[in-house]
Predict the 3D structure of the following.
Amino acid sequence: MLGKGSVRMLGWSAATILLLLSVITPLSIITFCLLMIPVIVQFVKLDTKRFLLHYGVSLAIVYVLTSLVLGGWAGILLVSMSLFFLPPVIQMGNLYKKRAPARTVLTVGTVTLLAEFLLSLVVSYMFGLNLIDKIKQFMQESINTLPEQLKGMIALDQDVLIQLMSQMLPLYMIGISLVLVVIAHWLSRKILNRSGEGIPAFKPMREWMLPRSFVWYYMIALFMEFFVKDTNSIFFTILINLLPLLTAAFAIQALAFLFFVAHTNRWNRTLPIAGIVLLLFFPPAYFIFSMLGVFDVAFPIRERMTRK
């Protein structure tokens, strides 16, 4: 007779199987973001041998089912996809077991996933497959499928646009890694805490504060933007990836400041929520918010507000 714990783990194995199978359906964008969650839960709740048994059986079932319907290539693809996410799962799971701070979990998980993306580019290049060229080709084909009216709205020449987008590949990889790890952490923590685990949460947003050194990085990047004009230089590539990241980081810092102001003055959350809505629907506000975030980090504004 299976206990409740064993039944739950079988349920998470079934979830792993269903999520992997759904990657080849129209729901792929949603389920792709959830692939790590059942594996994280099993890694934290089970010992190593039982985890490997559940995980191995799940992958075997996925391989057999997809191979029977679509062929062996589909089974290999889905199994490889799951194995790709295993290193960040193990890293995050180990940190959960040690009750590490949420910030550490997020950082380690993101860096691990990003390192895998970069390693994939290197390995594919070593085997004669240039993924960057493939991405450029995909972008070109995507633009060609647009209606003529939309093509006319593109301000830049298509070749220049594709070149810029390919140069921003590191930014895309960082963004994807961060989003996947944030989703995995947010849901996994809720699930694990409901099962009795004490996984630490992030600090309240009003307490978030970037390191002061980030201000210098941002100022230097903004200063360099006026002088770096060669779109083929390594400095230009660094800037077009670094500036959006720093701008977004300081914009989030500004939201943290708005939450702090609302909390300190005992207001409701209308002010920070309005800031979030503005950032979501009016992207030019990012730079204004980033400047507010810079002032929050660089100067003791909060100390003056709380000083009696």
